[in-house]
Design a protein that fits this description.
Oligomer: single chain
Largest sheet: 6 strands, mixed
Structural class: alpha/beta
Number of domains: 1
Bound molecules: zinc ion
Order of helices and strands: EEEHEHHEHHEEEEEEEHEEH
Helix content: 25-40%
CATH superfamily: Ribonuclease Z/Hydroxyacylglutathione hydrolase-like
Length: 229
């Protein structure tokens, strides 16, 4: 069965917050709740009404720790706690981005935004780690370059039903562009290696959802991304 996906661009940088719901258990994973926690919480409530279900938000995944990808996590987690859902989402991040996560306040200030300190990270991603929430099955792909602890998530769907896989590429790979490498701990050689060796090796039909902007497909980027030719 196809899972429920809602893409919600949030904040000044329009980070793509992804809401992913298992259609059987209603276990829910959020990718990059970067800003506008109230909007994200509203979307969750709306999904519950639309599908007449009760969501169990289990995890807040972060592709990396730049403030536009983590800035809403505290508000989302606290909001869910206050709703008394009985399920407390865990905050996931790769350990090598922890130093960026912990400087949310000063990093935000540098760009003119004010944040409270982030909540503690509950779980650290490992490369190649498999994570399962109901029928949602993710594989973690460590893709350093844009930041040291950048990760992508390959969401396996039902191939038998002809549904392509999805990869959430954060700020590593965009439609017709790639991530910037002028911020904390970035490295352009690493970025190219991550894209070539870990993302372009995926099936060409794989749908790629970047951290900003429209979706694309791995095959399309392999053929025509001007930064990769
Ligand atoms: Zn970023
Ligand atoms: Zn970003």
């Amino acid at each position: 069965m196809k899972f429920i996906q809602k893409t919600l661009p949030v904040g000044a940088f329009q980070c793509n917050c992804q809401i992913l719901v298992c259609p059987e258990t209603f276990e829910t994973v959020l990718v990059d709740p970067g800003d506008e926690a109230d909007q994200i919480l509203k979307s969750l409530t709306q999904l519950e009404a639309d599908f007449k279900i009760k969501l169990k938000v289990k995890a807040l995944f972060h592709t990396h720790a730049h403030f536009d990808h983590i800035g809403g996590s505290r508000g989302v987690k606290q909001g869910l706690l206050q709703n008394g859902l009985g399920v407390v989402p865990e905050i996931y991040l790769h350990r090598e981005d922890l130093f960026i996560y912990q400087m949310l306040k000063p990093a935000g200030q540098r760009f003119g935004f004010s944040y409270e300190d982030p909540l503690p990270v509950d779980q650290f991603f490992e490369d190649e780690q498999l994570l399962k929430f109901g029928s949602l099955r993710f594989k973690v792909i460590h893709t350093p370059g844009h930041s040291p602890g950048g990760v992508c998530f390959n969401l396996h769907e039902d191939h038998a039903a002809g549904i392509p896989e999805i990869v959430f590429t954060g700020d590593t790979l965009f439609k017709q562009s790639i991530g910037r490498t002028d911020l904390w701990g970035a490295n352009s050689d690493q970025l190219f290696a991550s894209i070539r060796n870990r993302l372009l090796t995926l099936d060409g039909d794989t749908v790629a959802w970047p951290g900003h902007g429209p979706m694309t497909r791995i095959g399309e980027e392999k053929r025509s991304n001007p930064f990769l030719s």
